[in-house]
Write the structure tokens for this entry.
Amino acid sequence: MKNLVKKIGIVAVVILSISCNKEVKKAIEPVKPNIVVIYVDDLGYGDVGFNGATEIKTPNLDKLANEGTRFTNGYATSATCTPSRYGLLTGVYPWRNKNAKILPGTAPLIISTEQMTIPKMLKTKGYHTGIVGKWHLGLGTGNVNWNETVSPGPNEVGFDYAYIMAATQDRVPTVYIENGDVVNLDPNDPIEINYKKNFEGQPNGVDNPELFDMKWHHGHNNSIVNRIPRIGFMKGGEAAKWSDVDMADHFLKGAQDYVKKHKNEPFFLYYAMQQPHVPRTPHPRFVGTSGMGPRGDVIVEADWCIGEFIKTLEKEGLLENTLLVFTSDNGPVLNDGYYDDAVEKIGNHTPAGPYRGGKYSLFEAGTHVPFFTYWKGNIQPVVSDAMVCQVDLLSSLAKLVGSDITVQDSEELLDVFLGKETKGRENLIIEATSRTAYKEGDWVMIPPYKGREVLKQVNIEIGNSKEYQLYNLKEDIGQQNNVAELHKEKLEEMITKFETIRGDYKNTQKIKLK
Ligand code: NG6
Ligand code: CA
């Protein structure tokens, strides 16, 4: 009996000390919340209620932004998609990679499989990693055969699971790809893609206006899919073609399924939504909801999707344990190549908010985008004026999960992202169609660039000028007064700092858009 008591006592002590050790371990282990990055496509700073939009309603986003850290100075690295996505995932400024520019659907992968990425870093800490949505960073090594497993792609740069569209909604191939394989591909109807010439006997956007409903305005006159003319030529793959009006629901379901499947392990989900990029194809239940035509309707649709996604996190008991980052890959554009009433029905809505320019522009609206973080119970509601950039997420998330990985251009700003610290980046180089400019505090310096001041077809001022431009955003948020002549010393200082980081900025590629 005595022995038994003794034995129980020893067992109890052992159990106690094991649980004590566990406690201690728990206390020193860094937190590993799930991390979700929701990335929208071409949404402007002023397109959301939380940044002052009144004509368009985004209640789900507004609630999250207002209960999280809402950034008034949040930036994409670039004013177009591919480079911004590159910066976000790799932590490297996209102008360091000459291939980081708007890619055709046939472009090879532009992230090296040796390179660090957010999902790779998180995998070192035991995360499961997934992408659902738009990729647009290239696939394969050139000459992709879409009828075999396409590789390398997202799976080779850190994603355990990938359910993507290859490029953009307006570019072929118009199919979903799951872990390298085209979904629903019929081997008897193989896919062929060509960005230079059409396949014999295939209709196209120039000769067959009877086959489409959405009229192209510029570009977008190659193959016709779902009565929408696209960029690039595609043959075959009938059964695999996506339904444009169902795309939002489809990606939402993909994101929800991913979360449900991986709720018992730390996960990272990159939910890269397609709205409000062209072609804007709201599901019928959203048609007419904004009064602004398809562009407004797909913003309402995107907001609904995010609300539904949050409900899933809540239902699965994950909301308190998930850090959410929301932002956009570049600023807004109205007519981006189709007649879809975006210009005609804009009314008093200001997609760029108070900023000048838009997508493709070195002026603020190109890169100054909606940006917030949300983490129920862990982030207090706060508006932060700190300058943060998507390129900073890699090093900052590394700090969060206890990794010492840092990357060249990615500043560790974890406390800023969590709303606890107000001092963000000191400076930032922004990029637009291969041109770059320098920001520091309230100042922006745009070096001289040749070429048109306004991209005619999209009607956006892109920042080109023969002169150096210098603006003080605190006094002149709309960049109306170039003060380069007035503040010569400041200008010189900005040029020197810019050139130190940027190197030979004059050696840029020509802008292809007219
Ligand atoms: C442009 C397209 C535009 C859009 C953009 C990429 C034409 C004339 N314009 O070349 O419609 O697809 O590329 O947008 O083809 S992004 O958001 O993915 O960078
Ligand atoms: Ca974009």
About this structure: The two ends are 93 Å apart (CA to CA). Residues 2-28 form the longest helix (27 residues).
